[in-house]
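wait is this the right file?? whatever heres the structure
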């Protein structure tokens, strides 16, 4: 059972992909998902792929339904889906809001071809096709004898040129009647019909297992078609296309020149009928410029008659006419208006423009006359411009005529047509002329007789370098008058117009033709596809697919650009594009084409069944020769036919040839002039017989073997390709099967030059073939034989009898004549290589080897595949069991991993270099490249995620794997060095790698990837099962963010947290590797990687508690969260929680906010965790029961958590004031002395917590100046002293909660007691809460009222409608700076804000501060704003030397979480409309974080970015609080 193949198309706004090819197979599912630019928008996706049970109609679109797997507001995973069951080309488009279309493209679904009486599938890559010129097949009853040659040569598809009645030129592509079978196929007394042809095709399909296709020609019909005479409107004639009149006049004139030259009338002017040199060409130029152009005066068709125009103008002026300005729109440009009928001097000018341009100075006759003279002069100028433009056209026409005559009559590579005659005119006629020719003057008079001029029809042809999407016969093109058309004078170009209504007969006629074809043939070749109007081909193919849904469509395109090719392939649903091996100038290029047109590289990675839809190149139909190519025997040599054919046959795509190539016909078989018949099949035929062929003829025996091989390789899944240019003539092509690891290697020695005249080297390089050569599949070469030389037969198309193929098939290596010896060498323990030395690899020879892995490798790969089936059923093919399976591999990996904790997962998946070094290791470093980001699996997977989709096997990562086992050993040894389940997983890897190490090195990257991907996805499954239902049922984005919890939460070698009370239950213990004593091993939360991940700098109070809700509570890691809360509680001192934890012993109590974030987390724990309030009764081991006590061991002094909470509140109300211990450079080398003085108090009037001074920074914006040069050392950039807005909000939140807890009987205290001036005072929590509530809006809101009595410093206000960043700062202007911190207060204490004020402030923040990933830390309008953080730059600039602007502009990520949560919170209070718009904003913003995480090799979100989301190299690559607050937004949604 193979997994369903799903491809994901990510839609991005304004992305129009109509020139990009997306190919799918039937049975695939296509999913449309939203890219970041569309997240949150109401997007609708429409397609014309028919809904279940409906018929396909090109212009009928329907909307697809969205599926939201999580059924949550976070719909970042939503998709709509198409189950592709019908082949063809389908369009999709999408839009949003009032935009109907803001992007779109096409999907091409390949047909499924079936052959044989049992209707088995013929894969497209299996096709071997042969082209026949149908007219050379003879009567229908002789066809099977001639077609049998194709069957016996091993082809499985026949392409017939059109079978219809041919035009008088007898060209295979000039059809006189599209509906009638060519009468040549019916012998005398017999009339065959399409039914007979259909029966023959069916017989070939069922009995010979071969399919038949034929051409459709939509572009032209034969000039002698009877129906075009009855329906001249179907072509471009002078009535429906009067713009062609000037070109027709020139064409007639050239015909009369032909007649005159043929009759010898120009001999006296040096122009004989036989044109032989450049003097004759020069004479033609003279005739054109002296006799033709002056006589036919083409410019008159484009000019105006001046005097009548002037008269008309004079009449208008005299009657007082005024210009109508609405018509000219004030543009005074006088232009010639082309007469739509193209009569001589039939053009006019716009009198309105004339009146506006030439205004008389009065009404006097003189003034009017002056005006008329100005107009006359201007008209003469315009006529002159037209004259010069026509002259340019005539110059180009002269050059084209010169070029044509030179090629037709003088050039060595041209047809050398001989003298000019009426049968071989000077130049091809561009128009039909079905009347008796008289004099030129009389001919030209017919232009005015519509009943005759409607029969002057334009011929078709092609234009070198023209835009294929433009119809060169339509108005606006000058191809016919400039004589740029390379014309087919036997065919009339058809004029379809824009749809059936424009030419009903033609559309109906061609639809009937198409239906006849589709009824009898499985496919069509679109002849002249690049100049068939797209809408016509689209319409006709729709009609064909109605009759035959799995229509195979092939075409040849000469657009010169892959992008233009794609326009045709996507719109028409072309299945295969014809590619020519003859386009290669040497063997190197021929090999490159094989590589280009199909297959993956050998050793490619197994791609997941659900993966992004990527653009592809068109499926190739790779032909060794087409019926349009020149003869390869003439261009190359007869000896090259076999090896070039072999190179083509080894391509992983459809391949084929043209009848005649295999028989070695030494000339091109002309589609126009060839009238002889193909030879028939006769096994007993003599070599000299021209009418019959068999396996001894030409290279037929070789081609049979090659066709069989080509089909076997495709059927059996040999879809990996390697092309090796051994030397300038030898190409080795390997086809490899990724499930059995069998290969076929074909070594082909080309002979582009004839070995008889060109010296080829006798030194053939030896070759090393990895693996064991099972057999020689074939060895063949072209040899001469004595059967007389080639004589072109009168009746049959015959080949060169003097050559045949010497071939042996399926022989052992020892029996080979081509190989002298094959030594077995063994490179290393797993490299089994056979060296081939060639004896007779002569030019024109081919040898193909079947190669397997050596038996030992084969067995090990099979066992490895067996163990990989648990991850992917695709590995069943080629798998085998191992009787000696190690015990560790006997149970599935899920079973082992299910015993792991999330802390174990951290070691398995993550750990950056600093964490690894703490354990005595480090991240794996790839020499010549770079170290991996993590020691765990994610480090490897991040690189492989880039390498795998591109199959970038040349990447240093893959190189390292092929070179040795270092990386492989690193993975297993690293885990084994841990204890417990991690070591078990390490042993599992070790056992798997024991097989891996002994298979050929070129296969190691793909199997290493398979093992790691399997283990990684298993680990993720186990991880998410241990998390909350919010994560388990969440979107991919939620899971990615939740993985941040595993990334950041770890147990290091040394415990990072101080020990918890021994009285506390459920605390994890281990035996220390260092002391061998039992010790606690609680998870701690890193602030960010890589800078804050290990040692003393890992744990920070503020960072831990800003991140804890998102990374631990939301993800369901409740016990670990409890332990962290209690461990920090134990370090409380001076009523504060430490900033830098330093295991408690080295703690610094220099921040004012950490304690409030800690309290917020306890509140969140109580509300989010089942029975969460139990934590309040948990014992806390106080390390510092008094401010001055030495650190005590755990269990010495225990208190319940609620007592510690109450102490923190009471100490603040009492007032905290102390000097840091060890103050001085030993703890902070930048701080000034005053900065070590810590203050945190409560204002008794407002209830606001305040503190700090201008020399320290007690909030998260804690950058201390470091530059002596810029004189900012020891000065904080953002002291934020006074009452910081978020601290006031967090304090309010804590008070509200404690009041509530007390009411519920869960918290015994209702007030705080303080000592003041020897008196004991108290303040109730309710009163403190009320004071903040009453004063917050008054003191923090900057109102629109300039006379607001609460405003202390109106002169400092520069933005209104915002909330201050602080209140009472020592530098008052700092209060008024717009920063993102107020949104934190909005989330934790929304009751402080009036809804309207909050909403306005949030909108201003959105406009001014919101960046792509983060929030600007300062208003860009502020004079000290600087958005680029560079900590290494030291200069004289006070404001940003040594990163002084860390929080003065750079965009930090974590505040965006609070900003978005505040928006959601207040939007809910403002009605549905506002809420919907906000949800859109939130999704749109978060989509950028999603994209960043998906692309990040750290799988995280950074600490900050520079302005406008630019990368900041000084930022942590992944930061705990960034991940946490974004996850909280999704939780709120």
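ok assuming it is, sequence goes like this
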């Amino acid at each position: 059972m193979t997994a369903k193949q799903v491809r994901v198309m990510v839609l991005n706004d304004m992305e129009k992909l109509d020139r990009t090819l997306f190919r799918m197979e039937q049975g695939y599912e296509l999913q449309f998902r939203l890219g970041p630019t569309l997240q949150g928008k109401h997007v609708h996706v429409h397609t014309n792929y028919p809904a279940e049970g409906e018929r396909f109609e090109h212009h009928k679109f329907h909307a697809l339904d969205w599926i939201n797997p999580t059924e949550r507001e976070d719909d970042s995973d939503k998709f709509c889906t198409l189950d592709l069951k019908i082949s063809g080309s389908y369009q999709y488009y999408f839009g949003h809001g009032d935009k109907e279309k803001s992007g779109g493209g096409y999907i091409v679904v390949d047909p499924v071809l079936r052959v044989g009486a049992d209707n088995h599938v013929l894969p497209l890559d299996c096709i071997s096709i042969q082209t026949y010129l149908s007219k050379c097949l003879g009567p229908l009853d002789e066809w099977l004898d001639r077609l049998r040659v194709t069957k016996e040569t091993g082809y499985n598809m026949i392409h017939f040129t059109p079978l219809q009645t041919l035009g008088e030129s007898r060209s295979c592509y000039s059809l006189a009647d599209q509906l009638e079978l060519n009468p040549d196929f019916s012998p005398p007394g017999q009339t065959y019909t399409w039914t007979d042809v259909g029966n023959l095709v069916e017989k070939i399909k069922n009995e010979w297992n071969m399919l038949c296709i034929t051409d459709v020609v939509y572009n032209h019909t034969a000039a002698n078609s009877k129906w075009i005479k009855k329906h001249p409107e179907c072509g471009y004639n002078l009535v429906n296309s009067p713009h062609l009149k000037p070109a027709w006049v020139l064409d007639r004139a050239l015909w009369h020149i032909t007649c005159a030259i043929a009759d010898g009338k120009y001999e006296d002017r040096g122009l004989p009928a036989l044109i032989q040199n450049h003097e004759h060409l020069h004479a033609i130029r003279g005739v054109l410029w002296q006799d033709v152009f002056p006589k036919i005066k083409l410019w008159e068709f484009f000019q105006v008659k001046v005097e009548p125009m002037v008269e008309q103008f004079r009449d208008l002026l005299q009657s007082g006419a005024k210009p109508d300005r609405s018509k000219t729109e004030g543009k005074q440009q006088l232009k010639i208006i082309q007469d739509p009928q193209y009569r001589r001097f039939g053009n006019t000018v716009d009198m309105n423009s004339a009146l506006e341009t030439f205004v008389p100075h009065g009404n006097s006759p003189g003034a009017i006359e002056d005006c008329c003279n100005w107009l006359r002069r201007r008209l003469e100028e315009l006529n002159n411009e037209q004259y010069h433009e026509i002259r340019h056209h005539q110059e180009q026409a002269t050059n084209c005529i010169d070029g044509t005559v030179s090629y037709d009559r003088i050039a060595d590579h041209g047809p050398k047509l001989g003298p000019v005659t009426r049968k071989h005119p000077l130049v091809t006629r561009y128009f039909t002329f079905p009347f008796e020719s008289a004099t030129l003057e009389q001919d030209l008079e017919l232009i005015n007789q519509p009943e005759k001029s409607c029969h002057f029809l334009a011929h078709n042809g092609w234009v070198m370098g023209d835009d294929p999407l433009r119809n060169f016969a339509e108005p606006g093109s000058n191809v016919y008058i400039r004589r740029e058309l390379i014309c087919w004078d036997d065919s009339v170009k058809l004029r379809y117009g824009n749809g059936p209504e424009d030419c009903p007969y033609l559309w109906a006629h061609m639809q009937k033709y198409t239906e006849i074809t589709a009824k009898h043939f499985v496919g069509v070749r679109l002849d002249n596809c690049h100049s068939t109007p797209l809408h016509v081909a689209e319409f006709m193919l729709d009609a064909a697919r109605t009759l035959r849904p799995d229509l195979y469509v092939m075409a040849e395109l000469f657009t010169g650009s892959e992008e233009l090719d794609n326009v045709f392939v996507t719109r028409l649903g072309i299945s295969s594009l014809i590619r020519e091996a003859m386009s290669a100038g040497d063997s190197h290029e021929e090999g490159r084409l094989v590589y280009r047109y199909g297959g993956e590289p050998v050793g490619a990675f197994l791609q997941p069944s659900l993966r992004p839809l990527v653009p592809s190149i068109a499926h190739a139909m790779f032909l060794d020769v087409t019926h349009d190519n020149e003869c390869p025997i003439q261009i190359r040599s007869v000896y090259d036919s076999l090896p070039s054919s072999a190179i083509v046959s080894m391509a992983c795509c459809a391949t084929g040839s043209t009848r005649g190539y295999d028989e070695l016909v030494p000339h091109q078989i002309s589609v126009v002039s060839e009238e002889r018949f193909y030879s028939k099949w006769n096994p007993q035929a003599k070599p000299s017989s021209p009418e019959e062929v068999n396996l001894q003829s030409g290279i037929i025996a070789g081609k049979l073997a090659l066709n069989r091989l080509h089909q076997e390789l495709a059927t059996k899944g040999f879809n990996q390709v390697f092309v090796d240019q051994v030397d300038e003539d030898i190409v080795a092509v390997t086809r490899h099967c990724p499930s059995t690891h069998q290969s076929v290697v074909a070594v082909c020695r080309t002979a582009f030059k004839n070995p008889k005249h060109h010296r080829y080297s006798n030194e053939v390089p030896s070759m090393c073939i990895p693996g064991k050569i099972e057999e020689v599949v074939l060895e063949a070469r072209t040899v001469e034989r004595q059967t007389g030389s080639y004589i072109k037969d009168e009746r049959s198309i015959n080949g060169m009898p003097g050559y045949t193929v010497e071939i042996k098939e399926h022989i052992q290596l020892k029996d080979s004549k081509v190989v002298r010896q094959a030594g077995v060498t063994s490179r290393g323990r797993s490299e089994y290589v056979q060296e081939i030395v060639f004896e007779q690899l002569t030019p024109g020879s081919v040898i193909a080897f079947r190669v397997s892995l050596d038996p030992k490798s084969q067995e090990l790969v099979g066992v490895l595949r067996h163990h990989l089936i648990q991850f992917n059923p695709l590995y069943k093919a080629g798998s085998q069991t191992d009787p000696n399976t190690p015990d560790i591999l006997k149970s599935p990996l899920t079973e082992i991993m299910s015993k792991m904790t999330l802390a174990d997962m951290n070691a398995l998946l993550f750990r950056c270099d600093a964490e690894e070094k703490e354990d005595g290791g480090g991240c794996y470093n790839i020499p010549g490249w770079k170290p991996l980001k993590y020691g765990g699996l994610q480090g490897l997977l991040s690189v492989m995620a880039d390498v795998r989709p591109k199959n970038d096997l040349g990447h240093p990562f893959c190189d390292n794997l092929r070179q040795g086992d270092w990386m492989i050993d690193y993975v297993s040894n690293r885990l084994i060095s841990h204890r417990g389940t991690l070591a078990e997983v390490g042993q599992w890897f070790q056992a798997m790698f024991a097989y891996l190490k002994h298979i050929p090195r070129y296969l190691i990257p793909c199997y290493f990837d398979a093992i790691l991907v399997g283990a990684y996805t298993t680990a993720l499954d186990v991880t998410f099962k241990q998390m909350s239902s919010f994560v388990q049922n969440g979107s991919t984005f939620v899971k990615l963010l939740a993985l941040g919890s595993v990334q950041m939460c770890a147990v290091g070698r040394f415990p990072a947290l101080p020990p918890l009370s021994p009285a506390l239950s459920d605390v994890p213990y281990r035996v220390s590797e260092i002391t061998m004593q039992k010790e606690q091993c609680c998870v701690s939360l890193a602030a960010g990687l890589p800078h804050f991940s290990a040692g003393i700098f890992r744990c920070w109070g503020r960072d831990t508690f800003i991140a804890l809700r998102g990374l631990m509570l939301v993800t369901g890691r409740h016990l670990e969260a409890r332990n962290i809360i209690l461990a920090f509680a134990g370090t409380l001192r001076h009523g504060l929680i430490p900033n830098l934890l330093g295991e408690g012993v080295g703690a610094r109590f220099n921040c004012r906010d950490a304690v409030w974030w800690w309290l917020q987390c306890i509140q969140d724990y109580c509300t989010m965790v089942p029975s969460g309030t139990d934590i309040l009764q948990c014992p806390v081991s106080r390390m510092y029961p008094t401010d001055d006590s030495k650190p005590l061991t755990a269990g010495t002094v225990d208190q319940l958590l609620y007592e510690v909470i109450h102490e923190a509140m009471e100490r603040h109300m009492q007032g905290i004031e102390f000097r840091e211990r060890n103050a001085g450079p030993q703890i902070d080398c930048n701080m000034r002395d005053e900065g070590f003085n810590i203050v945190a108090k409560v204002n008794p009037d407002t209830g606001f917590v305040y503190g700090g001074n201008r020399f320290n920074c007690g909030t998260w914006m804690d950058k201390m100046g470091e530059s002596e040069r810029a004189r900012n050392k020891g000065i904080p950039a953002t002291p934020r002293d006074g009452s910081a807005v978020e601290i006031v909000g967090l304090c309010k939140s804590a008070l509200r909660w404690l009041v509530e807890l007390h009411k519920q009987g869960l918290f015994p205290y209702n007030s705080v007691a303080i000592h003041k001036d020897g008196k004991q005072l108290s303040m109730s929590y309710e009163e403190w809460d009320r004071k903040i509530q009453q004063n917050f809006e008054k003191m923090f809101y900057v109102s629109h009222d300039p006379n607001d009595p609460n405003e202390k410093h109106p002169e400092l206000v520069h933005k209104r409608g915002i909330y201050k960043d602080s209140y009472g700062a020592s530098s008052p202007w700092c209060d008024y700076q717009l920063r993102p911190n107020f949104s934190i207060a909005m989330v934790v204490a929304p009751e402080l804000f009036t809804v309207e004020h909050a909403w306005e402030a949030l909108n201003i923040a959105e406009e001014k501060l919101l960046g792509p990933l983060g929030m600007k830390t300062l208003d860009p309008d502020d004079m000290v704003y600087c958005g680029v953080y560079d900590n290494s730059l030291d200069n004289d600039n006070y404001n940003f030397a040594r990163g002084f602007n860390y929080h003065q502009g750079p965009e930090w990520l974590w505040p965006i979480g609070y900003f978005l949560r505040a928006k959601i919170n207040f939007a809910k209070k403002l009605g549905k409309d506002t809420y919907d718009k906000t949800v859109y904003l939130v999704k749109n913003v978060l989509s950028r974080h999603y994209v960043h995480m998906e692309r990040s090799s750290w799988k995280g979100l950074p600490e900050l970015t520079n302005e406008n989301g630019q990368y900041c190299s000084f930022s942590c690559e992944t930061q705990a609080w960034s991940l946490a607050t974004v996850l909280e937004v999704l939780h709120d949604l």
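The chain has 40 helices and 61 strands. so i think its the right one actually
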